[in-house]
Amino acid sequence: MSKLTDVPKRILIGRALRSDRLGETLLPKRIALPVFASDPLSSVAYAPGEVLLVLSIAGVSAYNFSPWIAVAVVVLMFTVVASYRQNVHAYPSGGGDYEVATTNLGPRAGLTVASALLVDYVLTVAVSIASGIENLGSAVPFIVEHKVLCASAVIVLLTLMNLRGVKESGKLFAIPTYVFVAGVFVMILWGAFRGLVLGDTMRAPTAGYHIEAEHQGMAGFVLVFLLLRAFSSGCAALTGVEAISNGVPAFRKPKSKNAATTLAMMGLFAVTMFCGIIALAMVTDVHMADDPAHKLLDHGVPLGASYVQHPVISQVAAAVFGDGSFLFVVLAAATALVLFLAANTAYNGFPLLGSILAQDRYLPRQLHTRGDRLAFSNGIVVLAGAAALLTVIYNADSTRLIQLYIVGVFVSFTLSQIGMVRHWNRHLAAEQDPAVRRRMLRSRAINTFGAFLTGTVLVVVLVTKFTHGAWVAVLGMVIFYVTMTAIRRHYDRVAEEIAAPTTPTEDTIRPSRVRSIVLVSKIHRPTLRALSYAKLMRADSLEALSVNVDPAETRALKEEWDQRGIDVPLKVLDSPYREITRPIIDYVKELRRDAPRDAVSVIIPEYVVGHWYEHLLHNQSALRLKGRLLFTPGVMVTSVPYQLESSELARKRARRRQEWNAPGAVRRGPVGPVEKRPKEPSGRG
């Protein structure tokens, strides 16, 4: 089986890396930016459109509020970035929001943050890929017709890329991310030059359309609620900001400084791009509608179901560069690609957070294990599976998925900032140096303002988005919280149960006797080897045990046993219903009832085979029996292997490859040079 899987695995993922090469996978800032910030950078491709879609409910006149909403998003972005710069310096271990909340607010707050982040990471993958499919689908009809299939294929591709390792995936993602950022900046600068210097009139493809408002003449509380909802949609531009604080260990030294610098670069780029696209959308008169088939009118006539509404960034690019121009095509391709790659933020954040939670016994321990390429492979696979499931359920529709978005990230933002305020309060109480105290007071002020602002936004998001789908994200958080609590309770209960006792118990007292039983079906080499091993163990009593399923075979076994003069008594159990497992289990339990202080050692001969299909043909009864015996107290199960010729051939094939890919070989780290074994004698004279 290993032979069949090793070659495809090596082709798709690459050769396994030794544990001592972990340092080679650390990221410089130029690679860390696209790896950890691709989500907030790419969100400018859909966040402005979400703002305009919400405002379109009140008609084109409501678009005049979009610059003020952009200003509010900018203030929030700078506040969050400044706050997280304090986090990466104070908690550089990679726990991020989870560590901050757990340390300063307690385990429950930390688990709440972890639940929110895990949900948000899954949604990041689903939303980013669905949005990218929709952007690409406007040019390729096949993708629109099969968007769930295409989105699932992209998830599989991204999963394979990330399984190759963080550094390798970062190199692949760097070029399209930087092309996208450069393309947006060129579009903003060229649009500003055309409008301010040349005085050109730039018109978006939808500039001539009219929007039929759902509610005319909005005012008062209704208008305020609409603006708050538009603001909460624009806050999608902040998703992924926390990923850098979770990924500090992946940076090169000095880790905290490099992470803080990357945060600042990310914030500056994202804010400039977001504001620039909003401004150009206003100048070029972009029109967006929540239901374009019926709400967008051309000379009073609805555009109909055949109309495809392109994203804001595509419409602005068409107005600035010219529809179909070289720069338009480059930016459109980079936008679609970077939206796919935006999911990489989650592919780095989810496995790392999952590893930390597994270490704290809130998730299965397998999530803490690094794979062949030194990435947290199990976490990557779990994330991909959850995102694919969500994509299928919501039909890869970004408009439906985005309603679930943002809630989780602002829960983590708010609790993290409150935790940082507690952090500074604790340190200020013990710090006497005036200069250090001034720095702490400044940091506390930043985190206090951040907690207030993100908490306010969290309330706004919950109020405005809850009935539109955000309740699903809240439900997901509750499920994660309950599940992780149950896992921790299980691990704690097991740890308490298996803890070494301080007083003598049944586990520490030597058994009165050891009764060995060798299971026998036929007399062959595996049976004889098992009998020889059992004699070597010098148990207090030894017997061979067989089950009478076929009377003729049982008689033949007894006759051959006597003929060979085997000096171990053979006991045969009757089985009227031709069962093998149950009579043996009942017999062993009877021995335990008769002498509770005795230990029973059951010795099972087993074949060792070299081909995967041979596993289906051998050892099935032994596996079932061992599975049942494991639940019987006071019973020890020993397998005595007998290597068939096919296993020897498999071992020699592995030796020729000069490495034995045993489970965990990579994780054990360096073991020194491989020693060449002497050639085995051929057996010829």
C-alpha Rg, in Å?
33 Å
Mean pLDDT: 79
The name of the CATH topology of the largest domain is Amino acid/polyamine transporter I
Could you say what the CATH architecture of the largest domain is?
Answer: Up-down Bundle
Determine the number of helices (DSSP H or I, runs of at least 4 residues).
27
CATH homologous group name of the largest domain: Amino acid/polyamine transporter I
Structural class: alpha/beta
Low-confidence stretches: 1-9, 16-24, 658-685
Class of the largest domain, according to the CATH hierarchy?
Mainly Alpha
Instruction: Compute the number of strand runs.
Output: 8
Domains (count) = 2
Walk me through the structure.
- There is one protein chain.
- α6 crosses α8 (147-163), α6 (107-137) runs antiparallel to α15 and α6 crosses α17 (377-393).
- This protein folds into two domains: 36-491, Amino acid/polyamine transporter I; 514-656, HUPs (Rossmann fold, 3-Layer(aba) Sandwich).
- The longest helix is centred in the N-terminal third of the chain and has 33 residues, at 166-198.
- With 685 residues, it is an alpha/beta fold.
- The model is unreliable at 1-9, 16-24 and 658-685 (pLDDT under 50).
- The protein has a five-stranded parallel sheet with strand order 6-5-4-7-8, with helices on both faces. A three-stranded antiparallel sheet has the order 1-2-3.
- It contains 27 helices and eight strands.
- The protein has helices at 2-13, 29-42, 47-55, 66-90, 96-105, 107-137, 141-145, 147-163, 166-198, 220-234, 243-246, 255-283, 292-295, 312-321, 326-341, 343-359, 377-393, 398-402, 407-428, 434-465, 470-498, 525-536, 551-564, 581-594, 612-615, 620-629, 645-656; strands spanning 210-211, 296-298, 301-302, 514-519, 541-548, 570-574, 599-608, 635-643.
